[in-house]
Amino acid sequence: MRANQVTEAEVRAVPVVPGTATWNPVPHNQVIDTVETAISRQGLGIVRKRFELTQDGANVFASYRLDQSRNGSSWEIGFRNSVAKKFAVGITAGTFTIVCSNLVFTGDFLEFRRHTKGLDLDELRAIANRALLGTISRLQSLEQWQEGLKAKPLPRRDMQCLTYEALQRGAFPGGRFSRFVEAYEDEASRHGQSLYSFHGALTQTIRDQSLNQISHRSRIINDLVETYRLPAPGGAIALPPAA
User: What is the residue extent of each domain of the chain?
Assistant: First the structure.
């Protein structure tokens, strides 16, 4: 799904699509207002917005950087909407690492609105508020998980095996292999040879892709790192089959 980076005004200008007896598309501008209201109710602020829109205007992907940061990383939430029956309104959690400008999402979207009839704006806001509460919980878990990666060493041989597995699973395009190697050396120089460095290098490698691609590849990256197990001396790394 090809999308181009646009302004918020361009997203808000997408015409409202009429619904049917069973399908009620939520306009993009209403999703933006609903998400921002939910953020405000949690006492959080927005410091940066990014929007991407498909050429026909039917599908929007957005990312908001929040004014909550720790250990060199900022909280980021992503959300999406479709007025073409592509997917339901959804929200996802993420972090943005300030030093390397790399963004990683949890990879999955918490669906907070199906495009069905019978839902007014007040109820939509209440649902979005509950969804954001769940997203904040996932943000906190994501931060703790990333911090835990720093304590997990990654021997050079295992890093090479994981890199091959990452390519096989589509964590990053093969044409960016050199970029990944450079990113890993940069991360390892600051954080040592660890799973955290490997994870950071992968997210650096895809940081200039679309929000939709980052979300998709983040899921692959997170699953790959999560399923890695330290080998016994002289043993092989343990990875389950790819999903």
Answer: 3-142, 151-226
- Nearest-angstrom CA–CA distance, 124 and 84: 19
Q: Count the neighbouring beta carbons within 10 Å of the beta carbon of residue 142.
A: 20
What's the CA gap between 107 and 128, in Å, rounded?
19
- Tens digit of pLDDT for each residue in 182-209? 999 999 999 999 999 999 999 999 999 9
Cα dist from 142 to 52, 85, 94, 112, 147, whole Å: 24, 30, 8, 20, 9
pTM of the predicted model as reported, rounded to 2 decimal places: 0.84
Residues 6+ apart with CB under 8 A from 61: 3, 51, 52, 53, 78, 79, 80, 210, 211, 212, 215
d(CA 163, CA 152): 16
- On whether the CB atoms of residues 29 and 89 are closer than 8 A, the answer is no
Residues 6+ apart with CB under 8 A from 68: 44, 74, 75
